[in-house]
Each structure stands twice: as C-alpha cells, then as structure tokens.
Amino acid sequence: MLYGIYYAYWEKEWGGDFIPYIRKVKKLGFDILEVACHNFSDTENEYLYQLKEAADAEGIILTGGYGNDSTHNISGADPMIVKAAFDKFEKTFQKMNIAGIKLLGGSLYSYWPVDYSLPLNKKEDMKRGIENVRILADMAAEYEITLGMEVLNRFEGYMLNTCEEAVDFVSKIDRPNVKVMLDTFHMNIEEDSFGDAIRMAGKYLGHLHLGEANRRPPFRGGRIPWDEIGEALHDIEYTGTVVMEPFVRMGGTVGKDIRMWHDLSDNCPDEKLDQDVAESVRFLREIWE
Ligand SMILES: [Mn+2]
C-alpha cells in the first residue's frame, strides 16, 4: 500500500501552493501528497509542470481530491449545471494530466458541500449519475485517470451513504477506471462494520481516506478500529492508496466546509502538526505491514 496525506491539514483554503508540501510529506514518511483540484481548471500549465517536476524529484506520488460545487453537478436536474460540470471536469483532467495526477476522488458524482435547502430526488439523481459518470469515466480514461466515488455520511451527501450503495452504483457504471472510495470518518457514522464494508468493496475499492471519528489523524488507542481495517485490507489484497485526511484547525473556507467550529489543535505550531502525522503514518505502517 501507498500512504499519503491531504495538504489541507495545514491550510485554510482549497488550493494555494502545493509544492512546499511535497518535500514536507516526504520528510514526514509519506509516499503520497493529495492536493485539491478545485481550482485546477484555472491554473497555469507552467505551475502544474513545476508541481510534477517537484513531485518526481522527491519520488512523491500526487493524488487529487475534488468536490464540485452546486453549480457543477453531473447528476443534477438542470442540463446547464450538468454541462458546466462536464466542461470543468474536462479542463481539470487536462490539467491533472500535466501534473501527472492519475487518481481523482471525492463526490465527483454529485456536489459538495450538500445544500439540503435545494430540491433533491435521489432516484432520478442516481439514474443520471450512472449515465453521466459512465461518460465522465470515458473522458478520464483518455488521460489514464481513475475516479474514486467517495461514500459520504448523510449530513454531507445523499446519493452514496454506504459502501453497499457505492458498490451497486459503481458496478452499474461498469468502467474499470471508476472505483469505490471509502473514508473512515464517514464510515464511522454509516457502516455497521468497518471490516465488512471494506470486504464488500473488495475489488471495487480504489482509494481510502483515513481519519479518526473527529477527523484527527489516526492514532494508537483512537476510537477507529485500525487493526480491524488493516485485516480487511489484507483480506481483499488491497495494494492501492490510503490517504489520511485530518482536519484539526478552524478558519477559512476549509474550516467552514468541514464544519470546524472548535479547535482540535490547541493552537499548536506547525511543528507539532508535523510530528503528529509522522507518528500516525509510522503507527499505520507498523500495524498494517
Ligand atoms: Mn474524505
């Protein structure tokens, strides 16, 4: 398995300069840096070439996270919003290709953060989702990009809340580059069993986000059953990517979208944040390998 971390642990906005994090995460013991692709469609090619060069120089793999906003929704009822989503994805894939990013995960099949004041029709949205993600998959395949359909808890999404729903969705899409993506934070709310959910995903599992129940980095003695999760990953012979996605600080668009209304970091300096995730990845490698 390859171990990573999402850059937003240290940041308050989606986007910004990812290059300094490449060396940082390498030093902290990671194989992967996950970046936000939210603004890729407007990012200069020159920067993306530099990003790729920096990652290659350190031997760090880049993966991408993305949550479309409500005006870019490929399952939406409004054809203009669907078209806007496809157009943005096409540009995003082109830019990801320049940066050498081969995996994009998130609520790609819908939008995020969900707005429950807007109308929703799960049955119709799922039907459009299956048809449109299939088209999206073929667009992504041009760039050898794999798409992770992230299962989200009920407070953040309504289309895929459980692994069972995601396996059904992905098997109906029936494209080799469309995978189930799980996240222990969301699983903690919706799944009866972490191990059974991972075994149910089986060959469809394409990416896994890691975090404690309150989105701290995984730690020994935490509330998520890391041993059980490791056993299940072994059972399905998973050799893919696992990326921790911790959020401990308030503020900015990240703090607002993640609903950080209290500080989990004790206002510690960046050095302490670094130590915590270096320890976290050491712990996971120790119990999972
Ligand atoms: Mn996640």
TrEMBL record:
Domain Xylose isomerase-like TIM barrel: 22-284
Gene3D superfamilies associated with the record: Divalent-metal-dependent TIM barrel enzymes (3.20.20.150)
UniProtKB keywords: Isomerase
Keyword Isomerase included in the entry's annotation: yes
Example of a GO MF term: isomerase activity
Organism domain of life: Bacteria
InterPro entries: Sugar_Epim/Isomerase, Xyl_isomerase-like_sf, Xyl_isomerase-like_TIM-brl
Matching SUPFAM superfamilies: Xylose isomerase-like
Name of the molecule in the record: Sugar phosphate isomerase/epimerase
